[in-house]
Amino acid sequence: MVNAPSCPGLIARRRIALDLLKVPESSVRFSIAPALQKIVNGRRALDIAGFLAESLTAERCGWFAAYTGEKHTGDTSYTTNPILTCALGLAKTERLTFATGVSVLPVHHPVALAEDACLLDGMFPGRFRLTTGAGYFSGDYEPFGVSLDERQLRMDVGMDVIAAHRAGKPMDVPHPWAGKVPPRDPALGKDRLEVFIGAWSPAGVRRAARDADGWVTDPIRSGRWIQRLTDVYREECAKLGKAPRIVLFREAWIDKSDAAARETYGPHVLGYSRVYFVRGNAFNERYDPWLKNVKSPEQLTLDNVLEDRVLCGSAQTWVDQIGRWKEALQPEEMLIRMRHYQGPELARTLEAIERVTADVIPQLR
Fold it and tell me: What is the model's pTM?
């Protein structure tokens, strides 16, 4: 097992005190999205040790889960198979939940994905969450000969298949797949699997309300944009008589001061923000008024993309920003991604996890 630094004594003492008082550490749970790749000699390389170190540190600091995503082409901090990655993490930890975030459901046969998810649920009861999503990147569709135009149909069919498999309901798998849905293997024991949906459109969050246990936001839209989607999601949950469950996903970095955090994390924020600017799916003048004055990715500044979008600053800046999001969005979980394949360094990331645990979480009780 990879050794990760234990939480500082201050963190341990606070956790013991809270346990004795039977008071939850925070009114919102914290989860991490670890990197699975890093740069070595100018090239991307698999970083299993780093992934496990982030996960183990989060576990030792009392965090809830680690999420890992799916990517098939292009520069990424993820891998092609988040299910396998979650299996590794589950085998190397004792309490931490692992979740896909997301599994691109439309490119997979839903029976295979359902069986894999249920097997992990049986092997590690209550510690695995399947998060599906429609995806948006053609590079994740082309290797499978699937068109982006098929996303909605394949998501709807796929979620129906997953539900039928878990419930043991007979179902013929319709177009674009074929076959019959087998029931969940009773040898796996009680079904404890949670299925969430990652979405960033009104149609997507309605699907999350209808077909899933909860909704995972995307990390690149502003809080104002997420607020609009939250309203749609909550309205749909209310119609269905379901309790809304929201995981707020944010890019994040903490340091001793706002200036130090911006210096460390700023290049990474601008890098991925400019990629999304070119793709045209992360910014909207309705929610980002500054966009009318920004005509090219090179014109993006940190001031543009940090506000209401990225947790970047001192502990007090984190507490203030999370407080605003808690009031407006009422998430049950904060999912944060600190390290990308380009950086920051692993050692500093582990220190940042500990700093959040010591200096932020106690203030959110």
Answer: 0.92
